C-alpha cells in the first residue's frame, strides 16, 4: 500500500509539474504537431477578348502528394504482418487454429486493400501496373512526392476515397484555353505552378496571378482538417485582362493560314490584322502553333511567336514606303515617271535587275510591276539621312512596344554607314530587317492620313496619342498608287475582295544564309489596306519557304483576300466598290397612227 501511495504521489507531482511549469512548452509542442499554415492559392484572373469572351480561364483541380517513406513503410508493415500470420496459420494446420486463421484473414484483407489501392491509383493516373511502387522506390530519401498534379476533382476524390492516410491533397487551379492552338502564341500558357511562362500570361503575370493568402488550421493525426483557426494573410485574386483580339477574326485568320501553309507545304506562316484607327491588334496567328491545353505534346520551338520575335528583310513590301519617303523629301512628285531601262543597274559586282525592261513607268505602275530598278532609282534621289529619318519615324529599328515579351527591334543601321549600294537596296527592301508586326505597324500611317498610332495587344477605350509621320497628302497618294497592285496585270491580283477597293503590295525576300542569298529559300508576303476609300484594316500575311508558289502574289495574297473579306464582314464595314447599276431603259409609248401618216 505504501509503495502504491508513493507511485500515485509521484504521478500526481509529475502531473502538477507538467500542468503548471511545462504547460507552455507542451502547448508549443502540440501546436507544432497540429497547427499548420496553409497557403490559400489565388484565383488567376481571366484573359478576355475585346468583347469579353474568355481566352484563358482557371478551373479548380487537386494535386495529390505523399511521403514516399511513410507509404513504403506502411506497405512493408502490412506485408510482414501478412507473411507472419500466414506462417502461424500454416503451423497450426491440424490443430485448433481458428484464431490464427482469423488473424491471417485480417492481415490478408489489409494488405490486399493496400495493394488494390495502389492499383486503383495507377489506373487513375494512367500508370502501368507496378508503376506506383517503382515511383516510390525511385524517390529515394525524399520525404515529399507528387503522385499527380492538376488532377480533375473527380479523379482526385476517387483516390482519396481509398482511405490511405499517407496520401494528402492540395487544392489548386489549372488554366484552360478555349481557343486552344488558334491563339496559343498570343495568350501563351502557365506552368504547373500557375506562373505565366509564354505570351500574355507571361507579360501580365503579376497582374493575372494575384497574391496567395495564408491561414492557420488544426489537423488531426491523419492530416485531416479539423478547423480553421485564424486567417494570416488575405488572398487577393488576380485581375482580368482584356485583349484587343477579336476571337472571331482570330479563328478565321488561323484557319486560313493553316490551310494555306499546308497547301504550299511551307515551313511556317504568320498573319496580323491591325485596326488602323486605334492601333489595336485584332488578330495575330502563327503556323506551326501549339495547344496550351496539352503541354505534353509541345516542342519548345513551337512557342515562338514568329510575327513578333522573328526578323527578316521585308523585300518588295517596303517599296510603297520608299515612294512615300521620296514624296516627303520632295525629290519627286506623284505624277512623275521613272526610267527603268535597260532593266538593270550595275554597282560594280552588285547588280539590281528586273525580270524584264519595263521602260519608263509611273509610280503606280512601278508598284504594280514591283520594279527593283525603279525603287532603287527613287531611293537614290534622296540623301541617306532623309531616307533613314523617314524609316526611323515609322518605327524601324525599334521594338513596337505592343505589349508582348520578346519583341524584336529589327535592324536599321545608321545612315552614316550607308554606301550607294545600301541606299539602292534599302529602296526595294534589302539591307534592313523587321518583324511582321513592325512592318504592319509601318503601313498604318498609309491608312490613317499619315498618323502612326501606338500599336497595342490590349483593348484601349481611347486611342493613344498618334504621331504625324507623313503628310496626309502623301499617305493618300501612295494609297492610290497601291491600288494598281491588285488590278489586272499587277502582282497582287489574287488579293482582290468583291465589293471593296484594296490597296496593297506583294513581296518576295530571298534569305541570306552563309554570306549569300539563296534563290531556293525565301519569304513571300502580302500587306494590304481596305477599304481603300475609307481605310480601316491593315492585314499582313507572310509565308515562309513555300514549296509550290514562289511569290507573294501567288502564295500570300489568297490568304489576305479571305481574311480581309471575312474581317470586313464581321466588323460590318460597308463596301466601297459596288458596281453601279445602269438605269433601266423605258421604251417610249407607242404613238397612235393618224390617217395619212407615213
TrEMBL record:
A GO cellular component entry from the record: plasma membrane
Pfam families xref list: PBP_dimer, Transpeptidase
Gene Ontology biological process terms from the UniProt entry: cell division; cell wall organization
Source domain of life: Bacteria
Broad class of where this protein is predominantly found: membrane
Residues annotated as domain Penicillin-binding protein dimerisation: 40-228
InterPro entries: Beta-lactam/transpept, Beta-lactam/transpept-like, PBP_dimer, PBP_dimer_sf, PCN-bd_Tpept
Location of this chain's protein in the cell: Membrane
Annotated Gene3D superfamilies: 1.10.150.770, 3.30.450.330, DD-peptidase/beta-lactamase superfamily, Penicillin-binding protein 2a (Domain 2)
Protein name: Cell division protein FtsI
Keywords per UniProt: Carboxypeptidase, Cell cycle, Cell division, Hydrolase, Membrane, Protease
GO molecular function: carboxypeptidase activity; penicillin binding
Keyword DNA-binding: no
Domain Penicillin-binding protein transpeptidase span(s) in chain numbering: 269-564
Amino acid at each position: 500500500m505504501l509503495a502504491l501511495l508513493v507511485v500515485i504521489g509521484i504521478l500526481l507531482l509529475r502531473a502538477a509539474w507538467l500542468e503548471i511549469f511545462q504547460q507552455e512548452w507542451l502547448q508549443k509542442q502540440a501546436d507544432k504537431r497540429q497547427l499548420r499554415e496553409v497557403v490559400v492559392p489565388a484565383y488567376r484572373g481571366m484573359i478576355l477578348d475585346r468583347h469579353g469572351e474568355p481566352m484563358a480561364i482557371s478551373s479548380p483541380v487537386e494535386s495529390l502528394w505523399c511521403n514516399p517513406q511513410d507509404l513504403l513503410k506502411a506497405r512493408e508493415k502490412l506485408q510482414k504482418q501478412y507473411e507472419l500470420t500466414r506462417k502461424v496459420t500454416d503451423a497450426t494446420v491440424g490443430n485448433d487454429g481458428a484464431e490464427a486463421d482469423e488473424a491471417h484473414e485480417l492481415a490478408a484483407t489489409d494488405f490486399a486493400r493496400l495493394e488494390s489501392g495502389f492499383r486503383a491509383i495507377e489506373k487513375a493516373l494512367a500508370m502501368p501496373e507496378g508503376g506506383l511502387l517503382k515511383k516510390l522506390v525511385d524517390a529515394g530519401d525524399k520525404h515529399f512526392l507528387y503522385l499527380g498534379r492538376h488532377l480533375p476533382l473527380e479523379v482526385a476524390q476517387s483516390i482519396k476515397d481509398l482511405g490511405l492516410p499517407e496520401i494528402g491533397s492540395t487544392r489548386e487551379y489549372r488554366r484552360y484555353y478555349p481557343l486552344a492552338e488558334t491563339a496559343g502564341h498570343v495568350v501563351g500558357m502557365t506552368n504547373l505552378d500557375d506562373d505565366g511562362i509564354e505570351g500574355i500570361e507571361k507579360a501580365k503575370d503579376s497582374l493575372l496571378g494575384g497574391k496567395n493568402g495564408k491561414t492557420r488550421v488544426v489537423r488531426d493525426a491523419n492530416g485531416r482538417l479539423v478547423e480553421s483557426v485564424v486567417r494570416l494573410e488575405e488572398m487577393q485574386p488576380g485581375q482580368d485582362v482584356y485583349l484587343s483580339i477579336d476571337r472571331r477574326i482570330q479563328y478565321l485568320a488561323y484557319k486560313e493560314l493553316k490551310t494555306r501553309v499546308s497547301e504550299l507545304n511551307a515551313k511556317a506562316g504568320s498573319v496580323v490584322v491591325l485596326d488602323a484607327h486605334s492601333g489595336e491588334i485584332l488578330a495575330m496567328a502563327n503556323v506551326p502553333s501549339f495547344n496550351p491545353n496539352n503541354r505534353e505534346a509541345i516542342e519548345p520551338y513551337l512557342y515562338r511567336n514568329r510575327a513578333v520575335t522573328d526578323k527578316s528583310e521585308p523585300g518588295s513590301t517596303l517599296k510603297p514606303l520608299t515612294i512615300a519617303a521620296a514624296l516627303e523629301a520632295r525629290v519627286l512628285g506623284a505624277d512623275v515617271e521613272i526610267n527603268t531601262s535597260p532593266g538593270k543597274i550595275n554597282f560594280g559586282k552588285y547588280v539590281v535587275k528586273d525580270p524584264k525592261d519595263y521602260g519608263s513607268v509611273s509610280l503606280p505602275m512601278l508598284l504594280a510591276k514591283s520594279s527593283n530598278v525603279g525603287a532603287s532609282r527613287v531611293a537614290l534621289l534622296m540623301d541617306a539621312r532623309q531616307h533613314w529619318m523617314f524609316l526611323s519615324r515609322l518605327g524601324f529599328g525599334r521594338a513596337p512596344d505592343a505589349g508582348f515579351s520578346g519583341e524584336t527591334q529589327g535592324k536599321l543601321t545608321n545612315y552614316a554607314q550607308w554606301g550607294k549600294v545600301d541606299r539602292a537596296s534599302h529602296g526595294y527592301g534589302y539591307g534592313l530587317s523587321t518583324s511582321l508586326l513592325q512592318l504592319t505597324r509601318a503601313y498604318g500611317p498609309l491608312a490613317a492620313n499619315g498618323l502612326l498610332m501606338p500599336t497595342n495587344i490590349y483593348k484601349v477605350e481611347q486611342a493613344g496619342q498618334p504621331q504625324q509621320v507623313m503628310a496626309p497628302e502623301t499617305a493618300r497618294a501612295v494609297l492610290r498608287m497601291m491600288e494598281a497592285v491588285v488590278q489586272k496585270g499587277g502582282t497582287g491580283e489574287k488579293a482582290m475582295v468583291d465589293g471593296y477597293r484594296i490597296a496593297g503590295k506583294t513581296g518576295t525576300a530571298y534569305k541570306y544564309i552563309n554570306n549569300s542569298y539563296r534563290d531556293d529559300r525565301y519569304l513571300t508576303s502580302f500587306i494590304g489596306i481596305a477599304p481603300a476609300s475609307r481605310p480601316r484594316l491593315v492585314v499582313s500575311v507572310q509565308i515562309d519557304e513555300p514549296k509550290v508558289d514562289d511569290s507573294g502574289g501567288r502564295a500570300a495574297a489568297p490568304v489576305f483576300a479571305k481574311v480581309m473579306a471575312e474581317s470586313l464582314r464581321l466588323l460590318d464595314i460597308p463596301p466601297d466598290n459596288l458596281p453601279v447599276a445602269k438605269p433601266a431603259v423605258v421604251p417610249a409609248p407607242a404613238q397612235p397612227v393618224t390617217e395619212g401618216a407615213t
